[in-house]
From TrEMBL:
PANTHER family: ATP-BINDING PROTEIN (PTHR43384:SF15), SEPTUM SITE-DETERMINING PROTEIN MIND HOMOLOG, CHLOROPLASTIC-RELATED (PTHR43384)
Superkingdom, taxonomy of origin: Bacteria
InterPro entries with a match to the protein in the record: CobQ/CobB/MinD/ParA_Nub-bd_dom, P-loop_NTPase, ParA/MinD_ATPase
Domain CobQ/CobB/MinD/ParA nucleotide binding: 7-223
Gene3D superfamilies: P-loop containing nucleotide triphosphate hydrolases (3.40.50.300)
Pfam families in UniProt: CbiA
Species assigned in the record: Nonomuraea recticatena
Protein name: CobQ/CobB/MinD/ParA nucleotide binding domain-containing protein
Coiled-coil residues: none
């Protein structure tokens, strides 16, 4: 199952996604956390001194790996972030996800790599996140396996098809007007694409905060994290384990896990949208960039989901 954490800058995406990943690992389940944010911060919060090999530096290898022997994709150069899998492509199981490192508490970590100021708003930024989109497009995951993506702040996360690649998207929102404004934006995009979202309140100080969130996001409010002294202590460099987390916050994490576990995978929507975003991308810039008709990369005979593992080369 794949989950994304989105929300306003500073709302707590990195903190909550890291806590979620650690919590899942503490239950004994496999989890890969993915840092897809502009400011790469997840390694630190997961207790790693050094960030893993950045995906952005291995884009060509990733493309070579994924295109496998798919006859519709002539070379890595012909592959763009939305190029969908087809017959012959290398389909990944959860354990095949490349470029991950183990963090001290158990979650594995994968990172897009840092973005420089120059990357922002241009192709580079999107191609780094594009590695994540490609990997997710070629991944067949199931219940009890968790990919947790810490996304970039604000509306940037729906600049590509990436936001449709998840079984559930958690929108982290502080109980402030700005906090819920990202929710409104996201809700509209999500509704247009049938993307399931749930709001996780964060840094909640009391019943008035909960009331505020309820008023603005209604039933989309799944649960909330209280302002945490333990998290603050961790930020101050003091040792932290999940046992230090306040019981209400640990309970909130368990609510998140249950919400993910209760989702059914929708491989049909997944496949339709992979093709839809690829066509859109092809028309917008990718045909011109590659000098190819990229719509020909869509394999109408390819079946998404577990069935695609059977015809692995
Ligand atoms: N529940 C919480 N209790 C106390 N502090 C928190 C909580 N959640 C987040 N914080 C603190 O708020 C700050 C911002 O959190 P975090 O870095 O996770 O946000 P972010 O949404 O990932 O930010 P960015 O948009 O910069 O990536 C951090 O100092 C973090 O420790
Ligand atoms: Mg962050």
């Amino acid at each position: 199952m794949r989950v994304a954490f989105v929300g306003k800058g500073g709302s707590g995406k990195t903190t909550v996604s890291a806590l979620f990943a650690r919590y899942v690992a503490s239950l004994g389940d496999p989890v890969v956390a993915v840092d897809a944010d502009i400011n790469q911060h997840l390694a630190l919060v997961l207790g790693l001194e050094e960030a893993p090999e950045p995906l952005g530096a291995h884009l060509t290898e990733i493309k070579e790996l994924l295109r496998g022997s798919n006859p519709l994709i002539a070379s890595a150069e012909a592959m763009v972030k939305t190029t969908p899998p087809g017959r012959g492509s290398r389909i990944l199981r959860f354990d095949d996800l490349p470029y991950t490192v183990r963090t001290p508490e158990g979650p594995r970590l994968m990172a897009t790599g840092p973005f420089s100021e120059d990357d922002l708003g241009v192709a580079c930024y999107h191609s780094k996140v594009g590695a994540v989109e490609l990997l997710l497009n070629h991944l067949v995951d199931g219940h009890g396996e968790y990919v947790v993506v810490d996304m970039t702040a604000g509306a940037d996360s729906f600049a590509s098809g990436l936001f449709t690649r998840f079984d559930l998207t958690f929108l982290v929102a502080e109980p402030t007007r700005q906090g819920v404004s990202v929710y409104r934006q996201y809700r509209e995009y999500a509704a247009d694409y049938d993307v399931p979202i749930a709001v996780v309140g964060n840094k909640v100080h009391g019943p008035d905060d909960v009331e505020f969130l309820r008023e603005h996001v209604g039933d989309d409010l799944l649960t909330w994290m209280e302002h945490s002294t333990a998290v603050r202590a961790m930020e101050q460099g003091r040792p932290f384990t999940l046992d230090d987390l306040e019981p209400a916050n640990a309970e909130a994490l368990s609510v998140l896990v249950k919400a993910v576990d209760s989702r059914e995978k929708d491989w049909v929507r997944f496949g339709h949208q992979a093709a839809e975003f690829h066509l859109r991308n092809a028309r917008a810039w990718a045909n011109e960039r590659t000098g190819l008709d990229l719509s020909a990369q869509i394999d109408p005979g390819f079946v998404y989901g577990p069935a695609s593992l059977d015809c692995r080369p």
